[in-house]
Amino acid sequence: MNLAPTTDQLDLRESIRDVLSAQCPPSFVRQAMSDDQAWRGLWSTAVELGWTSLATRLVDDSGLGTFDLVLTLEACGEALAPLPMVSSVGLAAGALQAGGEAMANELQLIADGQVATLIAQPAAHRLPAAPMALRDGRVHVSVGEITDATRADTFVVLCATTDPARSYVATVPIGPGVTVTPTPSVDPSRPMARLEIDAEPRAVESVDTSEALAPAMAALAAELVGVAAAAA
């Protein structure tokens, strides 16, 4: 098995590094800590250059794969880019990929630049009432410390079932029944919030829990590799 990146993949990472070097210098990162709208211009660039199109990498014929996403997130981490790339294209889209064609439209929205973030119950959760549930056709969420929630157009929720190996992945757009309350963040360029949802999902599909969460772990690891490289 060859795990080395191809020349095209290395070129992709270098092109992203070049863009971020020009548009996301340390001064911009500092600005984003006090200006909660500063990220939007850079996000528009990311959408225009096709970085967000990696959301549909497993359901289209682009030829891009998970390794391309890993290298992209690594480059974003190196630049400390104040973007919802890992939340939207890594975590949320990763969970939606497990839903296959049933979630193709939702993935396309992310590819087109809508921001999404993933709400998932930790495997070690032991509270008597699950904070994420699908009951009577409605998604119920009550959780805190959600990264990029204040930027999100859509929330991707992994709802527990009676079978721990299976979950429902559901999408809920910002709107009635959704309350986002900003909370303090150790990194002001990556805002956090408490989230309350009692709303009908726009789309829902049964998925394998491990398959839905595996891309999230890979995405987070990729960004952290980049952050560590920047600190070295």
Bin the helical content.
Answer: 40-55%
Q: How many structurally independent domains?
A: 2
Average residue pLDDT: 89
Radius of gyration over C-alpha positions, nearest whole angstrom: 17 Å
The succession of helices and strands, N to C, reads HHHHHHEEEEEEEEH
Tell me the number of strands: 8
CATH-level-4 superfamily name of the largest domain:
Butyryl-CoA Dehydrogenase, subunit A, domain 2
CATH topology of the largest domain: Butyryl-CoA Dehydrogenase, subunit A, domain 2
Task: Walk me through this protein's architecture.
By secondary structure, the protein is an alpha+beta fold. The protein folds into 2 domains: 7-91 and 215-231, no CATH class; 99-212, Butyryl-CoA Dehydrogenase, subunit A, domain 2, CATH 2.40.110. It is 40% helix and 23% strand. It contains 7 helices and 8 strands. It has helices spanning 7-23, 26-34, 39-48, 66-78, 85-97, 104-111, 209-231, and strands at 116-119, 132-135, 138-147, 154-160, 166-173, 178-183, 192-199, 203-208. Strands 1-4-5-8 form a 4-stranded mixed β-sheet. Strands 2-3-7-6 form a 4-stranded antiparallel β-sheet, with no helix packed on it. Strand 2 and strand 3 (138-147) form a beta hairpin. The longest helix is centred in the last third of the chain and has 23 residues, at 209-231. It is globular. Residues 126-130 have low confidence and may be disordered.
